[in-house]
Amino acid sequence: MNALGHIDRKKMMWGGGIILILVALLVYLGGSDAPPPALSELSASPLESVLGRELLGTLERLKSTTLDVSVFEDVVFKSLQDFGVDIAPQPVGRRNPFAPFEGTAAAASAPAGIKKTPASPPTALPSAPDEADEEEFEDFSF
């Protein structure tokens, strides 16, 4: 005898789905009662604290450093000459180097955004070494 025979299968599936969702929510939201750790808590190892102190000490020494600018007023410094070479201005390239050239057949027949490049002829393979070259290397053994 079936005790749940009057409840159709579809209702049982919906009820089971809702129960699973509720259990999942309780597990997810219920979690532990311990408060999350504060952001100010840091577990620093002794090595990290030593390195931090060294860094702070170096920064303090850097702040207290003063530069002697009287060197720039010295006669010897002022007598130095610049032997730099002036570089002539060079022409600037195209704004979009991948855009097709205007006025070419490839640019006119190519669809928008596609650049057609002409096929280059295959390059010749290097020729086999001459017998004279082979004779040069007979003395060497590998």
What topology emerges from the helices and strands here?
Elements: H1 9-30, H2 46-63, H3 75-78, H4 105-109, H5 131-136
Structure overview:
By secondary structure, the protein is mainly alpha-helical. It starts with 8 loop residues before the first helix and ends in a 6-residue tail after the last helix. Helices cover 39% and strands 0% of the residues. The longest helix has 22 residues. The chain is elongated. The protein has five helices and no strands.
How would the global form be characterised? Answer: elongated
| C-alpha Rg (nearest Å) | 40 Å
Output mean pLDDT: 75
Order of helices and strands: HHHHH
Number of helices: 5
Strand content is under 5%
Query: What's the β-strand tally?
Result: 0
Return the structural class: mainly alpha
Ends distance: 91 Å
Assembly context of the chains: single chain
Low-confidence stretches: none
How helix-rich are the residues, as a percent range?
Answer: 25-40%
Main sheet specs: none
Salient structural properties:
142 residues, mainly alpha, 5 helices, elongated
What is shown here, in short?
The protein is mainly α. The chain contains 5 helices and no strands.
